[in-house]
Specification:
By secondary structure, the protein is of the alpha/beta class. The protein has 11 helices and 8 strands. The chain starts with a helix and ends in a 5-residue tail after the last helix.
Length: about 290
């Protein structure tokens, strides 16, 4: 099912996320998606996340779909020019993959092939416009596409950005270009998220709050120091630091549930990014009472 249909029906949407392996084997991603499936509407498949070369998102999406789970195809601008991007969108549509998250992508200096030539022929707004055009039966060169792609388009936003006005401007541009829903960067500040939603809500597009279960105090500190727009409160870091290693997953679930409960009334969904802890998705969703 398209996520746009679920939103239109008034549903609260929950998605998970898996990262393909660095190898020609999708079994780990499939196992992760299967663990999440009872609690989510769809599973995102990352596209060479952090600019690290991995098994392709489209292939894993196709296999997940064959297993009876709705995928979200993440597509980045970093590695492809406009010909390849449009071709991949048509290919996804031909495989029956309906949901696409259009993102710019992490810079190659962050990845494992730092010498790779970065493309960025299009940015995320232009990619959304290209995808919308394909759904309307035309490509970026103005040529007919028959049959059109039938896609539901998503985009990302960062509520914790230091320049919130810029984020809101980008949201408007993405909506105008074709974005039908938004997933956020990981959020650890419910009050800040509420302030963001006061301004973003009137734009009309459904927003899914991003939740990353914290594995350790060290992970939290790393995110604060290295990921723009993320701030894990010190009290949360101290709570993890004071937790025995064997209890960290339990406390991580508790923190995620507390965050969701504090924010679920202000948004239209939750996007869970477990970063390998795929088994925490079901207990988080159940404990946060996201399913009737």
């Amino acid at each position: 099912m398209k996520l746009s249909t679920r939103f239109a029906d008034g549903g609260f949407v929950v998605t998970g996320e898996v990262g393909p392996a660095k190898g020609a084997d999708a079994s780990h991603a499939l196992e992760g998606a299967a663990l999440m499936a009872p609690a989510v509407d769809a599973v995102n498949v990352t596209d060479n996340q952090s600019a690290v070369m991995r098994l392709g998102s489209m292939a894993v999406c196709h296999l997940i779909q064959k297993a009876g789970i709705d995928p979200v195809f993440q597509l980045t601008c970093r590695d492809r020019n406009r010909i390849a991007l449009q071709s991949d969108l048509l290919s996804a549509a031909a495989l029956g993959i309906e949901n696409v998250l259009c993102i710019t992508g992490d810079h190659t200096v962050l990845g494992d092939h730092t010498e790779a030539k970065k493309v960025f022929d299009l940015d995320s707004v232009q990619l959304l416009a290209a995808a919308k055009g394909l759904s309307e039966g035309r490509d970026l060169a103005g040529h007919e596409v028959d049959p059109p792609a039938d896609l539901c388009l998503g985009a990302v936003v960062n509520p914790g950005s230091d320049d919130l006005d810029l984020q809101l401007l980008k949201m408007r541009k993405k909506i105008d270009a074709g974005a039908e829903f938004f997933q956020t960067q990981a959020v650890f500040d419910p009050d800040g998220f509420a302030r963001f939603m006061e301004k973003a809500g009137p734009l009309g597009a459904p927003v899914m709050v991003g939740i990353v279960p914290l594995k350790s105090a060290g992970m939290a500190r790393y995110m604060n120091e290295n990921i723009a727009g993320i701030h894990v409160p010190q009290a949360m870091i101290d709570r993890l630091a004071d937790t025995k290693r064997e209890d960290r997953k339990k406390v991580s679930i508790e923190i995620a549930v507390e965050l969701i409960r504090a924010m679920k009334e202000t948004c239209r969904g939750v996007h869970l990014m477990p970063l390998g802890w795929d088994d925490v998705v079901v207990p988080i969703v159940e404990s946060a009472e996201l399913r009737a």
